[in-house]
Amino acid sequence: MGDPKKQRKKYITPRHPWDKERLERELELVAKYGLRNKREIWRAAAIVRKYRRIAMQLQALPEDQREPLQSQVLSKLTKLGILSPGSTLDDILGLTVSNVLDRRLQTIVYRKGLAKSIWHARQLIVHRHVTINGRVIKTPSYLVSVDEEDKVELRSKGG
Fold first, then answer.
1. 159 pLDDT exceeds 60?
2. How far is residue 101 from each of residues 32, 60, 61, 65, measured CA to CA in Å?
């Protein structure tokens, strides 16, 4: 079973660590999204891989069993803002790492204009200057749902 307090790895490292094309793509993503290391990309890739695997398993099911499970998965991804409303299972299969990285708190803070740069956004979050619905969030990788997106704001100096 294992120790419940022990953190488990939430990503898979690449099979070929020195693949030139993959390294260049990852370097572009690190620069574009202001990531600290490649591990953050691999974690987002694990999320994409999980939902793609679920979508493939759902496509193999008969229609009557697929419908309720399909609507649950689609509503979850729509609520997170990774998919647009009215999406299908084929849209899940077309997900990319960028879709998940766009929903990170760090990216949302920068895109809303609360920070001067993507790295400034990360620093504001880590230094506890960003709140969502009045609650301080100190994790730049926090996935912001569509409901919470308009509630992201900078914390006032007094609080």
1. no
2. 10, 29, 30, 31
